Amino acid sequence: MSSPARPDDIQRILAVLKLAERLKSELRHSWLSSGRRESVAEHTWQMALMAVLMHRHLEHAVDLERTLAMITVHDLVEAIAGDVPFFETGERKAMKRTRELAAIEEIRASLPADTGEMVASLWHEFEARTTAEARFAVAIDNLEVQIQHNQADLATWLPLEYELIYNKMDRPCSHDGFLAAFCEAVKAEAEAKLRAGGVDLAAVKAHAVVEPR
Question: What is the pTM of this model?
């Protein structure tokens, strides 16, 4: 049985919800089909929907509730640390891990003890990528990025993002046959988009550095 609600706990949860509201306006380097940029909150919602639609098809079963909880908090640190694109270089990228570790500790300490520990544990589990749920969530994280790019105008893609269709999704999806097949379908959509835009796919493939699976 849960303990009675304490006013202080309620206020601490409300404070973190106010912090998390920043994710509705924290923009990512992804554009929507409507022409505006995607927010971190929208990215998280799409990941959650993907988990619901995909989890029954996996070769290796996962706990959907835990996966959804992990997805919900995996980018919560960006309410403090901000979003840093995958391909960015420089000080922000170099300090990303340090800032995010500090941010999750701040969030953990801001919440009631048990809730804070749960949120921090889920965040660290996602980052460690060792459990079935974390590997699924990380795969979805990478797939969502490409799915959103595929829906956006090609003019919003940076040239270096052409190569990412060949070296960013494969490894996170390689542990499960369904995810690997889903990755190939997303990749095929990306290739069709590039081909329609007059991009030389052979040149892109030749230049892409494919990571080992």
Answer: 0.93
* Closest alpha carbon to 124 in 140, 105, 141: 105
- Four-way CATH pick for 35-207: 1.20.1290.10, 3.40.50.720, 1.10.3210.10, 1.10.260.40: 1.10.3210.10
**How far is the C-alpha of 171 from the C-alpha of 175, rounded, in Å?**
8
Distance CA 22, CA 83 (A): 11
pLDDT one-digit tens code per residue, 32-42: 999 999 999 99
Whether residue 81 has pLDDT greater than 80: yes
For residue 213, pLDDT beyond 50: no
Domain edges within the chain: 35-207
Mention every residue, 6+ apart, whose C-beta is less than 8 A from residue 82. 26, 92
